[in-house]
Design goal:
The complex is a heterodimer.
Chain A: E1 2-4, E2 9-17, H1 24-34, E3 44-46, E4 56-65, E5 69-77, H2 85-92, E6 97-103, H3 109-125, E7 135-140, H4 150-159, E8 164-166, H5 175-194, H6 196-200, H7 204-215, H8 219-225
Parallel strand pairs in A: 2-5, 2-6, 6-7, 7-8
Antiparallel strand pairs in A: 1-2, 3-4, 4-5
Helix pairs in contact in A: 5-7
Chain B: H1 3-9, H2 15-18, H3 21-35, E1 39-43, E2 48-52, H4 57-62, H5 66-81, E3 89-92, E4 98-106, E5 109-121, H6 129-132, H7 140-149, E6 152-153, H8 155-244, H9 253-284, E7 292-295, H10 296-314, E8 317-322, E9 328-331, H11 333-350, E10 356-366, E11 382-390, H12 398-401, H13 425-435, E12 439-444, E13 450-457
Parallel strand pairs in B: 5-6, 8-10
Antiparallel strand pairs in B: 1-2, 1-5, 3-4, 4-5, 7-9, 10-11, 11-13, 12-13
Helix pairs in contact in B: 3-8, 8-9, 9-13, 10-11, 11-13
The chains are: A alpha/beta, B alpha+beta.
Chain lengths: ~230, ~475
């Protein structure tokens, strides 16, 4: 998080984490596609020719909320491949919130688990407390064959305290909900820790409503996607 | 704000950090070629990053006049100071010309601005009065003519040009930013991986140190235990000897046989413990060699003589093949005899009745680190002697050949194996030969016997 009281500007870092090929980059692409151009910058993918997401993807969002508070959100993805752990740890540095993108396919259960364990390890190594890190979980690829059923996902969601979302990122379903959900819990945690609402003189509930509205999908993009 | 922080946030703090200056200059130049309007790009702090311009006729004219020059420089510094936050702004000059100042935003941050102009708005018809009165010496005709030279463009068009130019700059910034992040991320990743490796290395080093310490403790334990075991064993053997010799009274035949077995097994145990001690000394490097020049022919012939009785008993033929003029080696006779005897006994043990064991000796050359680069190129060779003990027994499988010199290794590790032994013999052989600066190797095809070949340097100078 980065605060600039003079400019009335708040910058947040949200990281999309998860196993290789779970759809982290696809989430960012869908967000880029769905929200209004004035609210987002270009999607930057740092990759080499032969490798999928060698470094990371970066999508900057720029939201003006009530009373002139400028909120800049930087969305990052980490490289999912096991060997890129050093990069993953670097990208996780200074994260304010994490969206864990899990693959719904049954065959990927172990990959999800390994990536989650890795997330916890890397948080600890970066001096971040996993218990206090705002986290949402997205079960992506709901349209694939042999996935965990909705009932199973709901049951898992009840067990944990993290918000769980279901998504088909390739079709843009569930990605905005995941982002808004992550923004909400991240704001609440930072507000609790740093009294952001008080310092900036903004009403938290109103701000969240504003942000939700700013992030809501454009009608035409939605139709174009269909 | 630290550089690490910028990297973690993917932030651009300064335009000049990420923008490719040459690309920027090129864009300015082509812009000027296309529109004939000057353009200048400034950083957030106001330093000029790139430009393409030409002095206008009217500017040159007013600068020849004292008041004109002062008014002109005032305008220029006013334009330079303009730093619009949101929208672009236009600024007029007393000549009627205009400048357009457009802010540069990137990822929601203002990083700098660019200035287009001067140009004459196409909407302007007359030479403005402000130009005519700026200096008492202004000549209306000259001013009109000079002003006419200046590029004329409609305000709406200038806005569009400005918009386009900021899109182009945004693209240059984006690709510059990406290259900047990629290279910095690359460096950071390499550094992070290096840190991980250093971490792992130090853990490995710790584990290695611990193992070494354990090994030392084991050696000490062995040394102490062997010594402690030997003391009572000497008594057992001694008293069995006395019993067998009838010193304690006559024994019947069965009793003599039993006592004989006790003594025999006691001696076997003693030999075993002595081997362990030898092994330990060799491991710790505390065994001292008492080297002498020995005739190889005598060495090998003696070996044959010593083994002849047991060979006859087993029905195995012994053959020696010694090159004429074989000469001497410089070795510890006791230790080398121990080596040869050990190998020869093994050979005999593994050769079936009717088989042959050959003892060979030939002159050879020896490179201490023959595998090392340059050892042969620089002729780092020494004359040596190779002694072979070659049997026609069961042979040794390829994958076993490397392991047989390890302590306690038995090719047949089962408790019911046909051939006895402690598994220490060959490892002691190897250590003694190593201590001489020599080499021992085995050549074997399973079922076709085994050849143990010992190469010993002729003198110790090569150690």
């Amino acid at each position: 998080m980065q605060l600039d009281f003079k400019q009335r500007e708040l910058t947040l870092k949200l990281v999309y984490y998860g196993p290789a090929l779970s759809g982290k980059t696809t989430n960012l692409q869908a967000i880029h596609e769905l929200i209004a151009p004035e609210a987002r910058g270009r999607l930057m993918t740092l990759e080499t020719k032969d490798d999928r997401t060698l470094f990371f993807d970066l999508l900057p969002l720029s939201l003006v909320a009530g009373r002139g508070l400028q909120i800049r959100v930087k969305l990052f993805t980490v490289p999912g491949q096991v060997i890129h752990n050093a990069t993953r740890r670097l990208v996780l540095q200074g994260a304010d919130g994490v969206a864990f993108i899990a693959d719904s396919q049954r065959a990927e259960a172990n990959a999800n688990k390994a990536a989650f364990v890795n997330l916890r390890q890397n948080l600890v190594e970066n001096g971040l407390d996993p218990a206090r890190m705002p986290l949402v979980i997205q079960f992506n690829k709901r349209d694939m064959p042999d996935v965990r059923t909705d009932a199973e996902v709901d049951q898992m969601a009840q067990k944990g305290r993290e918000p769980v979302y279901k998504a088909v990122a390739l079709r843009g379903q569930g990605v905005i909900e995941t982002l808004v959900g992550l923004f909400n819990i991240t704001w609440r945690r930072l507000d609790e820790d740093h009294q952001l609402g008080e310092k900036f003189g903004v009403d938290g509930a109103q701000l969240l409503a504003d942000v939700k509205q700013k992030l809501s999908p454009r009608r035409h993009a939605r139709e174009a996607a269909r | 704000m630290t550089a690490e922080f910028d990297l973690a946030m993917g932030e651009v703090a300064r335009l000049e950090d990420v923008v490719d200056r040459r690309a920027l200059a090129e864009v300015c130049r082509t812009f000027f070629e296309l529109f004939s309007i000057s353009v200048r790009v400034f950083s957030r702090e106001g330093s000029l990053l790139a430009d393409a311009h030409e002095e206008q006729e009217v500017c040159r004219y007013v600068n020849t006049l004292g008041d004109g020059r002062r008014a002109c420089s005032r305008i220029v510094s006013d334009v330079k100071r303009l730093d619009p936050e949101g929208e672009a702004v236009s600024h007029s000059c007393f000549t009627g010309a205009e400048y357009r100042v457009v802010p540069l935003h990137y990822q929601g941050r203002r990083l700098g601005r660019f200035v287009i102009g001067p140009y004459v708005p196409a909407e302007m018809r007359e030479v403005p009065r402000s130009l005519l009165v700026i200096d008492s010496r202004v000549d209306a005709e000259t001013a009109r003519a000079a002003l006419h030279e200046m590029p004329r463009v409609r305000r709406e068009t200038v806005e569009r040009i400005g918009h386009h130019f900021s899109r182009v700059l945004d693209l240059i910034l984006f690709s510059g930013h990406r290259a900047y992040l990629t290279s910095n991320m690359h460096i950071a990743s390499v550094r992070e991986s290096y840190r991980e490796l250093v971490d792992k290395n130090s853990k490995l080093q710790d584990a290695y140190d611990k193992l070494k310490e354990l090994d030392r403790l084991k050696s000490n334990f062995l040394a102490t235990m062997s010594h402690e075991l030997r003391t009572p064993l000497t008594s057992i053997i001694g008293y069995s000897d006395m019993l067998e010799a009838g010193i304690g009274g006559d024994l019947n035949e069965e009793q003599t046989e039993f006592v004989g077995t006790i003594r025999q097994k006691g001696e076997h145990l003693l030999a075993l413990i002595t081997s362990l001690l030898d092994m330990n000394k060799l491991e710790q490097g505390t065994m001292r060699l008492n080297r002498k020049h020995l005739d190889v022919r005598v060495l090998v012939t003696d070996l044959q003589k010593t083994l002849t009785p047991s060979a006859l008993k087993k029905g195995v033929q012994l053959v020696t093949e010694i090159e004429p003029e074989i000469g001497n080696v410089f070795v510890d006779p006791v230790r080398i005899n121990q080596v040869l005897f050990n190998l020869a006994e093994n050979a005999l043990k593994f050769t079936p009745k009717g088989g042959t064991v050959r003892f060979t000796a030939r002159a050879t050359e020896f490179a201490k680190d023959a595998d090392d680069f340059g050892a042969s190129m620089f002729d780092l060779v020494e004359t040596a002697v190779e002694i072979g003990i070659i049997d026609s027994g069961i042979g040794i499988a390829k994958d076993e050949q490397n392991k047989i010199f390890d302590a306690f290794y038995q090719v047949d590790g089962s408790s019911t194996r046909e051939h006895g032994g402690t598994g220490l013999g060959l490892s002691i052989v190897k250590r003694i030969v190593d201590a001489h600066g020599g080499k021992v190797r085995v050549e074997s095809e399973p079922g076709h016997g085994a050849a143990f070949l010992i190469t010993l340097p002729r003198d110790a100078s090569f150690e």
